[in-house]
Amino acid sequence: MANIVLMPKLGLTMKKGRISGWLKNEGEWVNQGEPLLEVMTEKVNVKVESPFTGILYKILCDKGTTLPISVPIAVMAEEGDDEAVLQATVARAQADLAEALQASAGREEEKRKQKTRAVKPFTVFSGERKISPRAARLARQEGVDVSLLNGSGPGGRVVEEDVLAYLEQLRLHEEQNVIPIDGMRAVIAERMSASRKQAAHVTIMAEVDVTALRDVRNQLNAAGEGRVNFSYTDLLVKFTAEALTEYPMVNSRSSENEIFLPGSINIGVAVALENGLVVPNIKNAHRLSLEQISLKVKDLANRARNNELNPEDVENGTFTITNLGMFGAEGFTPIINRPETAILGVGIIRTKPAISGGKLEKRDFMMLSLSFDHRIIDGSLAAEFLSRLKEMLEDPYPWLQLQPQTVEELVIAAGGARTPRQLRAAYQNGIDRLMETAPDLVMGFSALTERIFFDDSALSSLHKELIAVALAVYIKCEYCIVAHIYKAMQLGATPEQVLEAAGVSVFFGGGAALAHVSTLVQESIEAFSKH
Amino acid sequence: MLEMTYSQAINAALREEMRRDSRVFILGEDVGVFGGCFGVTAGLYEEFGPERVLDTPISETAIIGSAVGAAAAGLRPVPEIMFMDFMTVCMDEFFNQAAKMRYMFGGKARVPLTLRTVCGAGLGAAAQHSQSLEAWFVHMPGVKVVMPSTPADAKGLLAASIRDDNPVIFIEHKMLYGISGPVPEGEYTIPLGKADIKREGRDVTVVATSAMVHRALAAAETLAGEGIEVEVVDPRTLVPFDKETLLRSVEKTGRLVIVHEAVKTGGIGGEIAAIVAEEGFDFLDAPIKRVAAPFTPVPFSPPLEAAYIPDENKIIQAIREIV
C-alpha cells in the first residue's frame, strides 16, 4: 500500500517548517524509524524518522521549501505496489498539497484545520540524557528537544515538570515573540559580555594595500586549476601566523594574574552559523603551508556548519580572525575571544584611486581592525604588529614561497641525503628555490656568512657553523637553520651548543618567535641523532 | 455505620453467611469452644453448634483435605489455618487439589472453599508464626487471594469470598484484629478484584497491602504537612488484581512506591512493579521503589522484629527519594 508522508509537527508551537534536506533519495529503501529528512523549525534542526517502511517513491517538496504542518511531502511505496496505484497516490497527495498550500495562503484557517490529519509520532533525536519515561513521552509528543531541558529530578534526570516548564516558557515567549537565550546563544552572550568586562579593549585600524595580494591569490588559484581555491581568509591566516612568530605577546593567552605564551600559534577563524557563531582554530598555523591552511579552514567551517566540531577544534586558540568583509563591513571593533589577548577584524576590499610610485592608480584596499587587551599588550606593540602584518600583506611574494616543510624533508631531501655531499646538494636545492622566490633573503644570508666562512681563519669550522646557525635563526630561513645545525653536529657540536647558538640569536633578533624556532632546532637535533 | 474491630467484622461476616446459607460451615484448630486462637470465631459454636463449627485435630492436612472434599461435594467450608506459616503442611491439598480441580474437571467440579489464615509479624511470635506468604498464592493459578486492611473491607470481602465458587485464601493480619473502624450495617459484599484508594493525592502513588496500608496512611499524613500529596492505593485482593486502578493512579502521579510486609525478594511488590513497567512505563517520572522486609526470617527479638517490619519512616524515606 502506498503511504503518504506528512510534514511533522515537531513542537507545540510549530506551525511551519522548512525542509532542510532529504536524507534519502527517491527509489531508496527506508526502514521505519530511520532518519528520513531534516526539518528546521524556528529553533532547531531536527532529524525526522520515517513513519513507514518502504521505498521512498516520490519526494513532493524539495529541500528549502517551507511548509505548514501536516501537508503531504512524500509518497512511500511498499514492495509489490502497483505502479498505477502509486501514480494515483502521488496525484492525490500533490492535489492535497496544492489545496493545503492554497488554503494556507488564503488564510483559510478553518478549512485547513478540517484537512489536518493526525500526525504520527516522530522521534526527536537528541544526545544522551537521563530522562524519565514520563518526561520522554511528553517531550516526544510535544516535539521538545530533550537536550534543551533542565533536569531537576534526582541525579539531574529530566522529569515531567521540566518539560512542562519548558513548554510554558515557550508559550510565554511565543506570545511576546521573544527567542529564549539558551544553548549556543547563551554561551555567546556569556562569553562576549565577560570578555568586554574583563579585557581592556582597544582597537586600532590600518588600511592595507592588497593589490599585490589579490594578484598572488589570482595566480595561485589559476595555477591550482580549481584544485584548491584560496580565500582571503586563508591568506590572512597564513600571514598572520607568520607575523605572530615575531610577536609572541600578541599570540598570548591570559588569566587574571598570568600571561601564557603558548608554544604554538593556533589561529581561530570565526564561522557564522544560522543561529550563532563558533571559532574553531587552526593548530600550528605557522607550520602549515597555504594549501594545508586552506584545506583546514574549509574543513573546520564545514564541520562547524554541520555541528560536527570536536571540542579540541575550538580549544586552545591563541589568536582569532573574524572576517566581516564579505558582509560589507569596512572596519569594526571586534571583541576579543578570551582568554586570547587579541583579535583581527577583516573588512571589505574596496578599489580606490591611490598614488603609487608617483602615479595615480586603481588599487585595492582592505581595512584591518586589531582589537587587543591593553592590560597585556601595549599600544606600541600592537601597532608594530599590525604594521608588520600590513607590510607582509602588501609585499606577499617572499613569504608565500617560504613554505615550511618538515625537518625530515629538509634533512633528507632528494632521496635521503645522509652524507655531507648529499646534504650539500639538498641545501643547494633549497637555496636555489629560495633564490627564485626570495633572493633578498639568500643574498643577505650570504653577505652575513661570507666573512665568517672565508676570511676569519682564527675560528674553527665548528664555531663557524654555530655562528651560521645563529644567523640562520636570525633571518629565519628554515633551510639554512637545518642545514647548518646538521653540519655543526657533524663537526661535533653538542645539542647544548646548538641550542645556545640558536638561543643567542633568538635573543639578539628580538622579534623571532622563540617557540617556533626552538621547535625547529629541537627537531633538527633529534633528526640528526636519529640518522 | 457501626464502629467495629477487624476481628468483630470477620466474626459478623461469618455469622451472617452461616445464617444466610446452611451449607456454610467452619472448621479448624480451636475455632469452636475456645472461640479461635485470636477470638475471631467467638460465639459461633454457641449459635451454630458442633456440626457447623468443627474443632479439628492438629492436622492442617486433614483440615484442608476434608474441606476440599466437602466443597467438591456441594458444601461451602470456611477452614481456618491458625498461622499462615502452617500452610506448608497442607500445601498439596490446597495447591494441587483445591486450586486445580475446577480446571481439571472442565468446570464441572466447583470448590467453593474460603481458607482463612493469619499473616504478619509484630507479636514476637518468631520465625515460624510471623510470616507473610501471600506471594506464594499469587503465583498459584486457580486461587483467589484476598488481604483486607480495614474492618469494613474484611467484612465485605469475606462475605464475597464465601459466596465465590472458587477457592479463596483470605489472609488476615494478626496485628489488625484489634483496630476498629466504621462498618456498614447489615449484609454487604465487596467485589473481589477491586482496589480501593484509601487516600487521594497527586504527587506519588503508594500501593500498600494489609497492615502496611495503615503505615502508608501515617506516612502520607506526615508528608502532607510538607506539601507532598500521597495517594494510597490498597489493592485489597491480589488475585484478581485491579490493574486499572493502579495504572490510573500512576498515570496521575507519575511515581510509585510499593509497600508490603513480606520480604522484598520474590514479593508481590515485584509483580506490581512489573505491571507498571510493562503497561505504564510512559507514566513514570521516577524509578519505582519497593519498601519491604529484608530477606531474612522474622527475628524473635522485639527490637530486631521492629527493625524488620517496614515502618512509616522507611516509607517516607522512599517517597522522598523520588519526589
Helical stretch count of chain B? 12
What value does the average pLDDT of chain B take? 96
Number of helical runs of chain A? 19
The spatial strand order of the largest sheet of chain A comes to 9-18-17-16-12-15
Percent helix of chain A? 40-55%
Sheet with the most strands of chain A? 6 strands, mixed
Number of strands of chain B: 14
By oligomeric state, this entry counts as: heterodimer
Task: Quote the distance from N terminus to C terminus of chain B.
Answer: 37 Å
Report on the structure:
The complex is a heterodimer of chains A (531) and B (323). Chain A is α+β, with helices and mostly antiparallel strands. Chain A is built from 19 helices and 18 strands. In chain A, the strands form 5 sheets. A 6-stranded mixed β-sheet of chain A has the order 9-18-17-16-12-15, covered by helices on one side. In chain A, a hairpin with a 2-residue loop joins strand 17 and strand 18 (359-373). In chain A, helix 3 runs parallel beside helix 4, helix 16 (461-475) packs antiparallel against helix 17 (478-490) and helix 16 (461-475) packs across helix 18. The longest helix of chain A has 23 residues, at 83-105. The radius of gyration of chain A is 31 Å and the shape is elongated. The termini of chain A are far apart. Chain B has 323 residues and is α/β, with parallel strands linked by helices. Chain B is built from 12 helices and 14 strands. In chain B, the strands form 3 sheets. Chain B has a 7-stranded mixed β-sheet, with helices on both faces. In chain B, strand 13 (256-263), helix 10 and strand 14 (289-293) form a beta-alpha-beta unit. In chain B, helix 3 packs parallel to helix 4 (91-98). Chain B is globular and about 55 Å long. The two termini of chain B are 37 Å apart. The chains are: A alpha+beta (531), B alpha/beta (323).
